[in-house]
Structure formats: C-alpha cells, structure tokens
Amino acid sequence: MLSGILLFNQKGENLIFRAFRPDCRPRLADIFRIQVISNAQVRSPILTLGSTTFSHVKHENIYIVAITKSNANAGIIFEFLYRFVGLGKQYFGKFDEDAVKNNFVLIYELLDEILDFGYPQNTDVDVLKMYITPDNLSSAIRSVSAPSSDTSKITMQATGAQSWRRGDIKYRKNEAFVDVIEDVNLLMSATGTVLRADVTGQIVMRAYLSGTPECKFGLNDQLVVGQVVHGIDGPIGNQDGRKATRAAAGSVTLEDCQFHQCVQLGKFESDRTISFVPPDGEFELMRYRAVENVNLPFKVHAIVREVGTTKVEYSIAVKANYGSKLFATNVVVRIPTPLNTASITERTTQGKAKYEPENNCIVWKIARFVGGSEFVLSAEAHLTSMTNQKAWSRPPLSMTFSLLMFTSSGLLVRYLKVFEKNNYSSVKWVRYMTKAGSYEVRF
Amino acid sequence: MNEQGKVAELRQELVNSGKKDKNHAAKKNALKKIVANMTMSNNDMIALFPDIIACMQIPVLEIKKMCFLYLQHYARLKPDIALRALPVLQEDMQDTNPLIRALALRTISYVHVREFVEGTIEPLKKLMMDQDPYVRKTAAITVAKVYDHDKRLIEVSDLIDRLNRMLKDDNPTVVASALSALQDIWERNENIKLTIDYTSASKIVSILPDCNEWSQTYVLEALTSYVPQESGEALLLAERIASRLAHSNSAVVLTCIRVIMYLMNYISDQRKVEELSRKLSPPLITLLSKPPEIQYLALRNAILILQQRPEVLQNDIRVFFCKYNDPIYVKVTKLELIFMLANKSNISVVLNELREYATEIDVQFVRKAVRAIGKLAIKIESAARLCIDTLLDLVNAKIPYIVQEATVVIKNIFRKYPNQYESVISTVIGQIDELDEPEAKAAIIWIIGEYADRIENADALLQDYLSTFHEESIEVQLALLTATVKLFLHRPTKGSSLVPQVLKWCTEETDDPDLRDRGYMYWRLLSSDPVTAKKVVMGTKPPISAESEKLDPTTLEELCLGIGTLATIYLKPVQQVFRAARPRRLQDSPALQRKKEDLSRALGSPGMNLAFPSLLNTTVTTPGGTPLGGHQAAIEAADEYFKNLSLSDNSGGDILTSPTTGGVAGNPYVVSQNAPQQVYHPQAGVAGNGDLLL
C-alpha cells in the first residue's frame, strides 16, 4: 500500500513528508516537484516513474500526494486522499497551505493514526476527535495517564462495528435534519434534442440524536432501483416515451444508489429498507443517480447567428419549467462569445447581463426566477477582424441555479423513524434542493 | 540565521524551560519548531537528538508523539544515539494505556535500524494477544512491517502462524488487519502461498457488515485468494458480497467488482453470470459522480471490464458523453469508451457528439476525436459513408491539425474498403497544402501512390514533395520512395523520369539503412522483372481492423484480477509498468469455466489420447497463451479439458489461510505442468529503475 504521504504548496515547497515504508526516500519530493508541479505538460493525476507511482489530488492551493511502490489499489489511494482532505476541512475549517502550516504537528499525528504501514485505518472524524484534538483543547485523554475506562472506550470505538459513533451522546432536544440535494445534469444539442439528462443526488443528514438511535428511512412509496432495461440499445435521448407510465406520482426510479457505511447494505439489498445508526452531526447518508423521468427545471432556447466575420447575434430564451409557487435563486446563464470579441451590446427582459472579456462570455444573472416565467436576452457581439480566420469553437452555453423544494428525479422522503431505548421523541426536518450540475446547451 | 545558531537556540528553549514550564508548554513549542525545521525547511536538526531522547519520557502524549516522529526521521542517520530511545519504547509497550502501547509498537517498528527491528519481535508476540483490539490490529500490521525490514527474522519465528491465528479474532478490524498483513507479506515472497477455502471465505464474508470501509476493502481483496471448487459456492459468495456495490467508498465498490468478476470465472450458469454482470454497470457509472481522479479510475476499469464482459454497460453510452469542463484525462478516456460502445444503432448520435468534440480547444483531444471518427468507419462498415461525410465536413473547416488527422484516418479507410470511397480523393488532395506533419504527409503520399492511375496530376504532386526530399523525415522519405515506384508501375511514362532519381537518392545519398535497403530492393525488382514487380508492389494487402488496441487474453485476464489497481490506469501488462510485480493468472479448479472453443476443440480433436495421461503431463510444457500448432494444440486443449475433470481434494481443514514459507510446492492435484502454479498478486516493486513510463 502507500509508502508515503506528501503535501506541497503551489510553489512546490514540501510542507509535509510522512514516510510509512523505508522505500519512501526524501528525494522523491524533488522528483514530484520537478515532474509534476513544475511541468505544465502533466495531464494525469497518476504518474509512474520507474518503480515509484505518484498519485495526487489538488485542493485549494495544495497538492496532496500519495507515493506507492507497487501495483496498489488505486481506489484506496484516491478515496483516502479525498478522505484526508475531508478530515482536514473538518479539523481546520479550511484545508489549505495556511491551515497545513499552522497545524502541521496535528497533521502528522493524524497521519500516524489514519495510516498504519500505509494501510488506511479508521478515518471517521467523530472517533478521531475523541483522542486527537487541537492542542488548545487539551482533553484528559491527551495525558498519558488517562483512565483506562476512557481509553478502552476509544479503542473499542476505533475498532468496533460502529466506528462512526460514540455511545455517550446526549442532546436535550433531539433533532434530525435531512437535506435532499440534487445536481441535475443536462446536455442538449444545438437542435434541441436532449443528449443526456440525469440527476446525481445526495441525501445529507444532520443528526443531533441522543444515545444509539436506530433510524429507518423511507423514500417514495414505489422505489425502483437499478432496473436494467433489456432489448435494443436504447434510443438515445428518448426516455420519456419508454417509461412515461411509471412517471405517476409516488414512484421514483433510481439507477443506482450508494450508502454511507452506517447503512446496513444487506437489509437494503433484501427488502429495500434503509436502516442505520447515524454518526453524530453531519454526514452523507446516501448518493444516488436517476436517468428516468428527469424533470428539467429550465428550458433553454438559444439562437446564435454568426453574421459575416464581424458580428454574432444572440437570442437566448430561458423558461422556468416548474410550479409558479416555487422560485429559483442565483440563476446565472453563461453565454460564450468568440475570442476576438471587441464589444457587446445586450438587452434583457429580466436580470442583468455583463460581458466578461476574461472569460469570453456574457454572464446573465437573474436573482429570482419565478416558476412558469420566461425571460429573454438579446445581444450582439462585435468582432475585431483577425488575420488568421479560424472557426469559432462555439463552446456550450451553461447555467447554474438553485431551486428549493424541488427534486428533478421526483424523489421524496416519506418518513424518518428513530428508535432508541429511551424512547424519546424527536423532531425531523426535510428540505429539498435542486442545483445545476453541468447544465449545458450547445448552439 | 545559520543552522548551528538555530540548533543552539532551539536546544536552549528545550532544556531551559525548567520547573516553571507549566504543562510543558514551552517544551511543546520548542518541539514544534524542531519538527517544523526538520520537515518543512529541511534544516538539519540531528544535533538535537540527545535532547529529544531526554524529552521522550515526559508524560504528555503530544510531546511523546513529536519525539517519536523525530526518532523515525533521524534514527537511520544516527543509529547509535537512537538506541537510547529503545528502553523508552519498550517500557511504553507495557503501558496500561492501550493507545500508548499501540503507539510505541507502531513507532518501534517504523525504525529501520537492526536493534529496533529485533527488539520488536518479543513484545510483538505478546501484543498480538493483547486484551485490547486496537493494540491487536496494530500488532497484526506490525508483522508485515517487520517482514519488510527483515524477512528472515519473521521466517525463523512463528509469527506468521500467530498472524494466521489472529484470523479467528472476534473483532472484525483485527481480522481485516491480519488479512491485509498476510497479503502484504505474500506480495513480497514468491514462495509463500495464500489459499482460502470455502468455509473460511464464507466466514470472512460474514464479517463484512461489521467492518469499517477500509477493512471491507482488505477483506474483499483477500477473497481473490479463494479458489472456488464448485460453481455453486462461487455464485453464492458473489451474491453475498454484491450488496457491497452500494457502498459509498469507491475502493469498496471497485474491489467488490474485482471479486465478482473473478468469481464469475467459476460460475457455470450463464444466466446467473449475466445477472451478476448487469449488477456491475450501475455502480460503475455512479462512480462518475465522484471527483475526477476517481472517475478516471472508474472509466479506465470500464474499458477493461467491457473487453472481458461486453454485456456490461451496453445501454449506457450517453453517460460517457463529455462535459465541457471534464479534465482532459477524463475526456480522453470517455472518448475511448464511446468508441468501444458505438454500434450500428447509435452511430449517428455518436458521430454528432464526436463532431462536437472536434471543435473544442484542446488539440490532443480534438485529434483523438477525429481519429475516432475514422476508426468508427473501419469498425462499423454500414456507417462508413456517414463517418466519411463527417470527416469531410471537418476537413472543410481547414483547421490544420484536423485536416492532418483526417488525412491519416482516411488513408486507413481506403485501405479497409478498397474501391469504394475513392470519390473523396479530390477533396483530400485539395487540402494538401495544410499538411506539415510527417504522419499526415506520409498518408497523403501513400494515397497519391496507391491511386496514381486516377489522380491526373499525381506526378506533379509527388514532384512537389520530392523537391524537398532530403529535408523530409525518414517516414516521409520511405512513403515517397514507395509512391514513386507505384506511380511508375501505374503510369510508366509519367514515373520514368522520377524513379531513377529517387532510387539514386535512396541508395546513394542516405544514411538510413532501411531507406537504402528498400531502395535497392525496388531497384532490383524493377530492373529484373517489371511484371513480378507489379504483382509484388500492387498486391492485395492484408485487411486492417479498428480493434488493434484490444488487450491480448493473458494481459486481460491478469488485469481483470487487478481491477481497481494502478495497472488498470495504464492497461498494459502489469510487469511492463511494475517490473517487480508477479504475474497473476486464474487458478485452476474443477469449477473454472473454460471458453467454449477450448472445449469443442478438445472434444473434436483427433490427437486426444486417453491412454497416456502421464505423457500429457510431461510433454506439454508451453505456458498458456502461446499458440501451438496442430497436433500440439489439440493435446494441450485436451489437457486443459481433463484438468477440469480431475478430482481434487480441497485440503482446507480448519485453518483459515495457510501461507507456507519455503519451497513447499503445494497443489498435489495439478495434472498439467502448464497449470498456473504461481501465486498471484503483484509483488511490491523493489528494484529502483529510473525508466520513464508516462
């Protein structure tokens, strides 16, 4: 497994160097700096040089690098690197160069704990925080002579079946918040056909529940998961016809779902119930994907005409395809312009549009977009003449937005039941939000 | 400030804090500075070693940890001073606090100094039976760590047996740690075998729900050491682990896919195999909503899985369409998958998509997209016309690198479908001025030569290139030589003036041996017998296919046994990238499903000899994968067939796994010598070779 973990800033200075095996030599830091950080040609997150493989991710302004010397499990490597970043954020708020420099001792301590001989160990922040704490929070456990009842609680936790939850959690008010957050992805062709429409959703839970609560979670009455369509290689972009019958309310078809490790997967496999003992606080309970009956919140109609070589005319209409009681916020439409654009004149029926020459696009912002309404932007781009006439690549138009109380997949939370031996009552809250993932329209 | 001054100052801080130092705050601060200097600015702090050792006994965990970090960093440079830390560690390994016991054990076994490694052994034996599971899981991994330092020390001890016994621990994390330690050891020694029988495999599967995510991965990885002896067992196990496909950790998902793919080799019911295959697609696609690096890994593995099980992912081509902001490595891999999944019914959508990519900014990606269009023409015959039209469309945009790329693929299309699409020659020739890359020039020159009889001004076109003959790259020069000869054979009158000149250049004025040899060959051929020359030069060419990038079966088998590993990123034979890795093959068993053709070949072969099985044992020594001709092939096939029929006792006993050291050659029931006997799993790379493999 991993031979070492290295952290660098953008200049290539080595901030953290932790070897887990004797084959992780200090000079490897220089090799990574030369071969990856200062090499503009690098196009892959994985680089194998001789017998050494460097796998890296970038976060904020730092590089997080794993060194391996064998044909290691790359899934473990990258999943671990991201988990490490997540831990950094949970510990320090932000995981960037400053955070690393200000907390390097703690980072070394964490690394010593979460990797043993390069094998990832327990990485759950709740349990880790029981015995690895920033030093201003000196807990009793930090002293060498901590009472053995405390330490064995930690060790049982770190190696137990519920490594994600402490047993002694108490809240005066027991609450659970459930956020259903969907990223809707769209790729529409210039002719208006939907090339791809899918939803990647996550259910994030914030559990503030005492004791060891056993939760049961119910989605739509009719939940279909991973129904594979047989027959001909599906007609692309035409799913509506195929599955319209199931679009009836109360049912949702998920292509696939993945769960937090607290969920009993065997139970889900056998009878589709989602039962779990949640970690304390915020966590991602579930992640899912839907491709059928995707409700697209916005329809975009784009007409872009190149007039000769000096002008491009735009007419972009955006229509909100949801109930009039709902409204989307922070709607931004990015409309690409040719690289040799000199100036833009634009007019909108709602919101503000601005040309951003540094990004080669017109940015059209609409703060509040009420359901059912339609807004139009008309614009002209004036181009400077160029000696080398190259065709404009016409990158797709893209949108970002967020829309509360709406799910593109149609997923609903029916219930969340909490069972605990003290039988307390608990309050549950559910919110829905749909955001734009990659919402692109070609023109 | 110079280094010495700094060291002196830090020492001062460390030592002088004295009694007033409440909670050792000053010491902590000094230590932090030392650790910072040691790791971040690479200042040499080794002079402080004795002072650090003095601090080790301060009963503050944080101070202890910093001192231990220092020890790990400098022990190898100053082993004599480091030795003074040994008693502290040994004492800590007996501490009442399990966290301290584990910390001390972890630390002592990280130090690559003989006395430390040796000093680990005895306490380790005790700590492997510690009452605290946290200490036990640390101890399990320590065995692998010590093995890494010094194999011999472990081999002469009974530590591997003890490690083996830990597989019966009632704590799942301890079991998983022991499994990963065993696998780690096993990867480094060719003589160690690791076999898991069905009962044991079944037992470790049952602890999966109680394991944390990483432990689940280690347990799943261990399952590839289980060789199913019965189809039903393999199926049951595959179905039992399938629920792991819904785990949110991609390492669990990919490793689970690996194990299911592995078990499928031993399942006879094809319906069940298909059912399992279908379960693999959705989780693989869901990984595409993970960060780009994990997407990349999932996509590379999708390419692999698709070659082994084409039924996977069949309906999902759309999910591989590129997003504009995908990183380039994701885009390029998606493009490969789109190419693989394209077929008659989706080709028009695919072509529209590829045409879109051909207008993007990244030159490398655009080129690959254009190339893919050309390759699709070769892959799907009925779509060739559509592909060519798309290519011509792109060529008309006159973007030089698109034109060059298109020229190269159009040449291949001409080769694949002779006498069908020659009507586009004029369009291609029309772009000749845009070409400046050798590959594209060579392609257009090949077209000119091949169709010299239809291109009216072929001689003039060649003449243009010939005027700069000596400046061209060797690839272009070779193409020019051949094209000129073809022109001469097609139209002797036009070529007669050019050929002697070119032959002279190639034979007398070049340093390149290939060019000279080819020049002489043509010369002799033309001067001895023009009719034969025409037959030779203009003869029918072997067909080309677009599937050239398919992995050979041995590599495919090996990579499938390593789904999710780094080698799948490269999709090359594992040893090519990881030299020290050991080859992995599917282990034989009565349940191993053979390819149908092997079986029918065996049954129908005249050379099958039932009377002399012992003969078969000794004659067939060719390792699998090498094609054997005729009789020999039949013998081998028969051999393979009977291997499946042989009875074997599965000596598992109650020991979970049994890695035996030394040269104990196991498998008494191997019938054929070409049965894969080696233990698979890649070996950790040890040899440091400076080769670049990008």
UniProtKB/TrEMBL annotation, chain A:
This is MHD domain-containing protein. It holds the Pfam family Adap_comp_sub. Belongs to the adaptor complexes medium subunit family. Residues 173-442 form the MHD domain. InterPro entries: Adaptor_comp_med_subunit, AP2_Mu_C_sf, AP2_Mu_N, AP_mu_sigma_su, Clathrin_mu, Longin-like_dom_sf, MHD, Mu2_C. It comes from Capronia epimyces CBS 606.96. It is found in: Membrane, Coated pit. One of its GO terms (biological process) is intracellular protein transport. One of its GO terms (cellular component) is clathrin-coated pit. Keywords: Coated pit, Endocytosis, Membrane, Protein transport, Transport.
TrEMBL record, chain B:
Its main location: membrane. One of its GO terms (cellular component) is endomembrane system. InterPro entries: AP_beta, AP_complex_bsu_1_2_4, ARM-like, ARM-type_fold, Clathrin/coatomer_adapt-like_N. It is found in: Endomembrane system. One of its GO terms (molecular function) is clathrin binding. It comes from the Eukaryota. GO terms for biological process: intracellular protein transport; vesicle-mediated transport. Keywords: Membrane, Protein transport, Transport. SUPFAM superfamilies: ARM repeat (SSF48371). Belongs to the adaptor complexes large subunit family. Adaptins are components of the adaptor complexes which link clathrin to receptors in coated vesicles. Clathrin-associated protein complexes are believed to interact with the cytoplasmic tails of membrane proteins, leading to their selection and concentration. This is AP complex subunit beta.
